[in-house]
Amino acid sequence: MVDTVEDKTTFYSKAERYWQEVPPTVDGMLGGYGSISSVDINGSRKFLQKFLGEGKGKTGTGCALDCGAGIGRITKRLLLPLFRTVDLVDVTQEFLDKAKSYLGEEAQRVENYFCCGLQDFKPEPGRYDVIWIQWVIGHLTDDHLVEFLRRCRGGLRQDGLIVVKDNVAYEGVILDEVDSSVCRDLPLVRTLAQRAGLQIVCEERQENFPEEIYQVHTLALR
Question: What positions does the entry give for S-adenosyl-L-methionine binding (predicted)?
């Protein structure tokens, strides 16, 4: 995929510039599709709750990480209701600043706001029960995605889980010049996860999204 990216530095800086122009709203975070937010969150909650709880092999509910968190849409509606504390990481400081007010009183349970691109982000080892990565892997080159997933693996607690939820191309890799991202097909996403030493423990397609947008798949990795 890196072959389709003219230059890694430009690839990342163009994306940063794009997001700096996006309004810090739910609609902005979802590219004008704010109306799908509830369907998205409900699907994610149903998916995630299969793994949470107590007992052998169950994922704990102590701390979650929201990657590419934006203003905290997923933190507010999915992660804070399920986890004691949450950390946010995003490349755009304005979004993280907005998150503090958007999250309301529950913001007191957010321990860290990291302003950093995921290609450079290093999760604290053994900190997280769940690392949630949604609609952001397209902003990483293949190699950087593999390296990031490896670091995430190290950031998990025992029986922790990495969840990747993202757009999936029907075939190959599609470059989006506007926001400087790529959309990969499912076999490639699976291959990159495996390269990072992760196993896919569950995979689902998100239902009830508008027909005109990419299909969206959710993968649980350990």
Answer: 68, 73, 90-92, 118-119, 134
Give the DSSP H or E segment for 103: none
CA torsion through residues 71, 166, 158, 122, sign = negative
For residue 40, give Cα distances in angstroms to 4, 13, 20, 121, 154. 30, 28, 24, 26, 28
pLDDT of residue 8: 87
**Is residue 68 part of an annotated ligand binding site?**
yes
7 is in an annotated binding site: no
Question: How much is the pLDDT for 87?
Answer: 98
Residue 174's DSSP bridge partners are 183
Per the annotation, does 119 bind a ligand?
A: yes
**Is 153 labeled as ligand-binding?**
no
Using 50 as the pLDDT threshold, list the residues of the chain that sit under it. 2
- What is the Cα 211 distance to its own chain's centre? 22
Judge whether 60 is annotated as a binding position.
Answer: no
pLDDT, one tens digit per residue, over 136-192 is 999 999 999 999 999 999 999 999 999 999 999 999 999 999 999 999 999 999 999
CA 77 to chain CA centroid, Å, is 14
* Cα–Cα distance for residue pair 20/14, rounded to 1 Å: 10
73 is in an annotated binding site: yes
